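User: Let's play a game. I give you a shape written as tokens, and you guess the letters that built it. Ready? Here's round one.
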């Protein structure tokens, strides 16, 4: 606290990112990073940019990257917006599209950055409870509102709506912006991207942090009708014209073009998730059906906070949220096969012994 803070700064309640501890031999399963490294071609492209050209500003429009993403998704470059991680894309989206006269709707349990942005941009919002099975019911969104944002798959639950359900949501709310945050879509959910052509109110947000193993590079993007993208650019160019450096633009292009590496990494994570789900079930955990690179699980006989602490004592970090409805759950990232086995062995000691 300082008397030099603005009134806004006093009012903010910032997001708490998953911790990045500096412990040796840590089994780090708390922030949904990819267990494998990025594409070797992406690393090569990043290294190639570490030269004299860094003297010069990067392309403010990230034209080559937008062209690559447009071709990848079957869209045009004016339907693509680039940001410094999808968190930044989301921030601009909240300012450009989600501040309307009616309240913004999102689930009571979802990405906890959404209410933070509402605080920063002074956006009125209402949360819509997930059903008893912790799923989003689109019928619950049939109410007066100014905009809707959903993470699909949802975080931290990992459950997903089908494309048909998203299409129905879009049809029922054709007059307001609807944003679908697909940070985890590549691990097993249906993307809403094919609905962009028929729904000018749809913005889909993606990131290279999760399925492309590039959380450290900070690249995210949004796809939607060119008019929506234009709105995002107005906000971006009022904030930071050069959000992505040269290495990030080059690395992202190479990562998107390395389809074989991407597919291989996805398959490994999905297989690891299946092993993790089976192992947790065997230990008596209730595990939500996950379409993401993490699972959300609780044990009927153990408190979430205690489980997280016991794991931490064994140098295994998972995410625990001290929040209503989910305080007994753990969100566990799918790690390497070895990490999955280490975690299951530790949980076996804790809940079995
Ligand atoms: C991880 C995550 C993001 C942010 O990813 P960036 O690293 O900022 O691209 C956005 N939305 C959800 C739901 C996430 O889990």
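Assistant: Ready! My guess for every position:
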């Amino acid at each position: 606290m300082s008397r030099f803070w603005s009134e806004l700064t006093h009012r903010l309640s910032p997001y708490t990112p998953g911790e990045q501890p500096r412990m040796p031999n840590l089994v780090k399963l708390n922030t949904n990073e990819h267990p494998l490294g990025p594409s070797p071609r992406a690393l090569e492209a990043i290294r190639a940019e570490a030269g004299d050209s860094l003297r010069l500003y990067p392309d403010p429009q990230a034209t080559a990257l937008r062209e690559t993403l447009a071709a990848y998704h079957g869209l045009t470059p004016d339907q693509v917006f680039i940001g410094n991680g999808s968190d930044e894309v989301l921030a601009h989206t909240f300012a450009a599209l989600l501040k309307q006269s009616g309240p913004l709707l999102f689930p009571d349990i979802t990405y906890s950055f959404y209410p933070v942005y509402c605080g920063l941009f002074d956006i009125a919002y209402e949360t819509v409870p997930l059903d008893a099975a912790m799923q989003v019911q689109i019928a619950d969104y049939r109410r007066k509102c100014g905009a809707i944002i959903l993470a699909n798959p949802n975080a931290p639950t990992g459950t997903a709506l089908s494309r048909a359900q998203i299409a129905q949501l879009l049809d029922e709310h054709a007059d307001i912006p609807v944003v679908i945050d697909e940070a985890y879509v590549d691990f097993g959910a249906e993307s809403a991207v094919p609905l962009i052509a028929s729904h000018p109110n749809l913005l889909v947000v993606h990131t290279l942090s999760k399925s492309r193993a590039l959380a450290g590079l900070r690249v995210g993007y949004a796809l939607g009708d060119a008019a929506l993208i234009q709105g995002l650019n107005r906000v971006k160019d009022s904030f930071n014209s050069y959000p992505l450096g040269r290495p990030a633009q080059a690395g992202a292009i190479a990562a998107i073009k390395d389809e074989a590496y991407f597919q291989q990494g996805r398959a490994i994570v999905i297989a690891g998730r299946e092993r993790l789900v089976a192992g947790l079930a065997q230990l008596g955990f209730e595990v939500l059906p996950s379409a993401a690179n993490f699972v959300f699980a609780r044990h009927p006989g153990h408190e979430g906070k205690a489980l997280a602490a016991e794991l931490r004592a064994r140098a295994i970090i998972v995410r625990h949220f001290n929040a209503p409805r989910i305080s007994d759950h753990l969100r566990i990232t799918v790690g390497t096969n070895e990490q999955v086995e280490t975690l299951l062995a530790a949980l076996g000691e804790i809940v079995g012994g």
